[in-house]
Amino acid sequence: MAAALLVIGVVYGRAADRTDRTPVPSFDLARYMGTWYEIARYDHPFERGLAGVQARYELRPDGRIGVFNSGTDYRSGRCKRARGKACAGQVPGRLRVSFFWVFYSDYNVMELGGDYDWALVGGGSAKYLWVLSRTPTLPAHTLNRILRLAERRGYRTDRLLFVDQGQ
């Protein structure tokens, strides 16, 4: 009985998740490196209450990627930092990221500006979505285009939290 419920739960959970998290077919890892500003995200505990969120990616000599996230707790004004690591797999645009020892999760670059000036990123499930930019703000027409792309992939953009970048 328990096994049947588990199978039903897994099947139902997958059926309910109709998001397309397929990464971009062409991806230049070296161009993706550098600083990204978080424009919007789905709410999750590890970034809750943070403003001015940034992520910096650095390609290391061993081929791995250093990940450095930072943001300011809007209540206390204290800067919070997280250091992680990532590695590129066989699928272009898909990284495996870890902030907690051996636990890795998917990081899917699903849409990308032609100049690598913005990115739409999804996690390993429909619970995670980020809009990133090389600058603290995006022009309204660019942001609207990204939101439409997210909706076409099955994401609910009304759930996005827009990050205060102090601009």
SSE order and pairing:
Layout: H1 2-16, H2 29-32, E1 34-41, E2 50-59, E3 65-73, E4 79-88, E5 94-100, E6 103-112, E7 118-122, E8 129-133, H3 140-152, E9 161-162
Antiparallel strand pairs: 1-2, 1-8, 1-9, 2-3, 3-4, 4-5, 5-6, 6-7, 7-8
Let me know the average pLDDT: 90
Distance between the termini: 55 Å
**What is the name of the CATH architecture?**
Beta Barrel
What's the story with the biggest beta sheet? Answer: 8 strands, antiparallel, barrel
Helix content: 10-25%
The main sheet orders its strands as 1-2-3-4-5-6-7-8
**Poorly predicted segments:** 1-15
CATH class: Mainly Beta
- Would you identify the CATH H-level superfamily? Calycin beta-barrel core domain
Order of helices and strands: HHEEEEEEEEHE
| Number of separate domains | 1
Q: How many beta strands in the DSSP annotation?
A: 9
- Beta percentage is 35-45%
Name the overall outline. globular
Number of contiguous helices: 3
Q: CATH topology, which one? A: Lipocalin
Structural class: alpha+beta
Using the CA coordinates, give the radius of gyration.
17 Å
GO biological process, one term: response to stress
Pfam families: Lipocalin_2
Domain Lipocalin/cytosolic fatty-acid binding: 27-164
Family: Belongs to the calycin superfamily. Lipocalin family.
